[in-house]
Amino acid sequence: MKYYKYLFKKSKISFYLNNTFSCRRNFKLLIIKKGVKVPSEPPKGFQNNQLCLSKSGYFPQTDIDETTNIYPESQHLPQSDNTRNKLFVSNEDSVNREIEKCASVEDVFKVVRINVDRLNHRHLAHVILALYELQSIFVQHYEEEDEDQARRRFYKKLLEHNEFFIVTEKIISQLDSSDSKYLGCIIYYLTKLGVKESSQLIQDCAIKLRDHLLNEFSLSSASQLLRVVFQENSVRPYYIVSDLIPKVFQQIDSIETVKDLEDLTNCMYRLHNILTSDILNNYERKIQQLINNKILTERDVQAILKVASLFNIPIWRHRFSAIISKCLLLMKNSIESCSFEEMYYLYEIFFKNQEPGDILNIIQRSAAKLLHEIEDTPIINHKNKLQLFSSIIYFSSPISKANFRQNIGQYLNGNQTLQTLISLRKVFSYLKISDNKLWNDYWNQMCQILKEEKNFEKIIKLMENYMYFSMDIYGFKHYAFEHCVFTLIQKYINEGTLTLYPARLFSSFSFVLMCSPHSKLFNNLMGSFVELSSQLTILDIFKISYSIQYSRQKKNLVDDLILKEIQEKLHKGTFKIFSKRNLEPTSVALLTKSMVIRRDFCNYLIEDMLTSLKSMPRMSSKLLEYICYNLAATKYLIPELLNLCTNYVIQHKGNIVGFNIEKIICLLYELNYHPIYDEEFFEAVIDILIRDQERMSGLAFIQAALALSFFNRLPKSLIRQIFNVEFLEKLDVELANCYFKDRYPLRVRHVLMELNRAVCLENPEYNIPWFHHKYLEEYKKNNAIDDVATKFHLNVKGYLLGIIGEDALLENVTIPYGYDIDFVYHLDKNNKITNNVDESCTRKFALLLKNNEDYTKMYVQLKGNHSLKNRHLEILGYKVKIIKRNIWDNLLYAEEKKDFINEILF
C-alpha cells in the first residue's frame, strides 16, 4: 500500500477535490466472477441470452472536420461528486459515512472487509464510485503515462486485492434486489474503472438494468446504461436497447429540469445515428422553450455544452447552427468561469461552426487566463496544457502567433502520447513552425506509436495527420513514417482485409497517391480503387482530391491516363451523390470544393451544384466560408447565392467572425457585385472588422479595406488607422515573423499599394500621400518579361496602325499610380485622330484588351479589379474603351474586324 500512500502524500488532497475526466475508454482487461482473467476479445453474438458486445462495425464520418471524439460529461463539481450528492446524502447509514471518509484504496477495502456481511447495493455502488475517484487522482498525478495506460495500471493494482472480487461477487448476488439508480451507477463506474463491457459481470448488470427500465423507466439510469453499451460503435447496442429507445424519445416533451435535460441529451447523443428530423426538431423546440422559460440559463454551462455537442454532430450541424449559436451566446457571461474541460469543448464547438463571433474575444481571454493557471500549478498536466494551447492559437493575432512560435519549446515534452502528438500537429500547422529538427523528432515519435498501433482506425488518423501536416508545411516528407505506413498497407493487402471497409481502402489510396504515386503499391491499390469506386463517400472524394492537388503542386503526379481514370471515378461518384434528394447544402458545398481543388470544373456539374444552393433554406458561417471559396475559385457570379450570404451577414452580424467577413467582402469585390440592402450590409461589415481587427492578419485587413474602397464604403477612421506609422510598423513586425517569407510579404505590399492608390485617387480630401512609386518601379523591373505582346495584342495592333497611324498610337503606356494601358490615342473636338495632346479640347482614350479570364462566369461582367482600374483611369482623365477577346476571336473576316475597331474607337 506504500504505492497509494505515496500518491496521496504527493497530491495532498482528498478525493473530494479531484477533477474527473470522463472520456470513452477501451481497456484490455476484464473480470468475471471469482476474478478470473479472460481474453479481451468477447465471443460474438449472444451466449446464454446474455449481452455480449463485439467490434463488428462502425459508422463512417460524414464531414471533413477533424473530430476529437470527445463529449462533455463533467460538471462544475466533478462528475462523481455530483453522483455522490444525488445518491449518497450525508444522513446515510454508518457504512456509507465510512466509505465517504476513505482517502486511499486500502481505506476503501478495509471498510469492505469489516462490513462484508452488511454490504447492500447502495454500499456497493458507493465503493465502486470511491475507487473510480481514486483512479482519477492517480491518472492526474501520473501524467508521464498515457491516460488509458495509467487507468489500466491502476486497474491491475485493484485486481491484486481479493476485496475487489468480494465486491463484484456481492454485486452479482444482489442483482435481483438492486435499485435501478444504484445499478446504473455500478455499471457505469465499473466500466470506467476498466471492467470490459463484454465481461459476464457487466452483461448481467446491463440485462438486469434494462429489465428494470422496461418496468419503471428512469432517464438517469437509462443514460448510464446507454453510455456503457454504446462504448462499441456498431449496430449491436441498438438491438440491445431497442425496447428502451421509444421510451427515451417520449421523454422530450416532458422535460422540465436541467438535470433531466442532461440525461436526455446523454441518451440522444448515444442514439444519434438513428435520430430523425422530427425527433431533432422536437428536441430543438424543447430547448427553445427551456431557454425562453428561463429554465436553461447561463449558469447551466455543462447542460448547454451537452446540448450544443448534440446539435454539433457533422451530419446535421448546418441545420442547427442557429440554435448552437444561441446556446453559446446564452453562456456568454459564464465563459470566464469555465473549467479546462468546458473551455476545450466550447472551443471544439466554436471552431467547427465559426460562430457566434461575439463571444470570441471572451473565449480567447478566458482561455489564456486558464492556460496561465495551468502553467502555475505545481503539477502541470501536459496533455491539458497542450490541448488548450492548440485551441487558443488558431484565433490568435499574428503578433501573438509570432510570440507563441518563439516560446514553443515549453510545450514540447519528451514523453508524448498519441493524443498530445495530434495536438502538437495542430500547433505546428497553425503556427507554421519552421524547424526541420523539430519536425523530424516529432515524426520519429509518431513512427514509434505507429509501429505499436493495432487499431486500423487510429492508423488512418495518423495517416491523415501526416497528410494535413505535409499540406500545411509545404514540401515536408518523413520517409521513415511513409515507409511504416506503406508496410502496414501492404500487410493488410496481403491479408485481404483492406478492402473489407472501403473507407480504409480510400484513405490508404489517398495517402499513397500523395506520397508515392509511382510505386508498385499504388498500382496495387489503383485496381481496388476502380473496383470499389461506386462506394465513394463525400469524405473519400475530398481526401483523394486533395492528394491530387498536392501531387500536382509537387509535380509528382501519376501518368495522365491514370489521372484521367481517377478523375472520372471521382466525377462519377460526385454526380451519384449529388443526384440524391435532400442532400445537405454543406455536403453540396464540400463536393464542389473537391471539384475545385482537383481542377474538375470545366463541366456543367459544378454549375448545377453551385446553382442548387440558391434554394437552400438556411445559411451558416461554415457554409458561407465554403461558398466564398468555391465562387472565388470558379469565378461564377450567382446573384441569388450572394444575396443569401449578404442577408445572413445583415441578420446575424453578431455571429460572423472577421475572418469570414473578409472572405465575403473580398468575394463581392472580385465578382464586381453590389449587394442589395447595401447600407445595412456595409454597416455590419465595418462593425465586424473593427471588432475583430486585432485577430486578422495584416493582409486580410488590408484586402477588406480595399474591397470597401471599391464600393466607396471605406470609412475615414479606417483610412487613418491603416495609413499611420503605428500600423505600418506593426505590419513590418508581422512580415518579419511570417512563415511564407518568399510570398506573403509580396502580397501584402502589393495590396497595400493598391489600397494606397485607391485612397489617393478616390479620397484626395484625406491627404494620404502616394508612397509606392519606388515600389512600383522595382516591381515592374523584377517582373518584366522580354515580350509582353500576345498574339491577340499584335493582331489588334495591326488594325489600329492601319486606322490611327503609328505616330498617333501609343502602346504599352504606364501612367501615374502604376497602371498599364495597352493602347492610348487622342481625339480632337471634331472626333478626329490627333497628335496634339496639349490642346484643352483634346480627349485621351485608353484602349484595353480584355481576356475571357477578366470576366465572371454565368452572369458575365468585368471582374472587380478590372472595373476599379477603369474607374481610376476615368478619374485620371481617360475615356476607357474595351476589346473583348471572345468577341474579337469570333470575327472571321478582316473587314469585320476593321469595322468593329472603328465602332469602338469613334
UniProtKB/TrEMBL annotation:
Superkingdom of the source species: Eukaryota
Subcellular location as annotated: Mitochondrion
UniProt KW keywords: Mitochondrion
Keyword Mitochondrion attached: yes
GO cellular component, one term: mitochondrion
Coiled-coil ranges from the UniProt annotation: none
Main location per the UniProt record: mitochondrion
Domain FAST kinase leucine-rich: start-end pairs: 662-732
InterPro entries found in the cross-reference section: FAST_2, FAST_kinase, FAST_Leu-rich, RAP
RAP domain: residues covered: 852-903
Residues of the FAST kinase-like protein subdomain domain: 752-833
Protein name (record): RAP domain-containing protein
Native species: Hypothenemus hampei (Coffee berry borer)
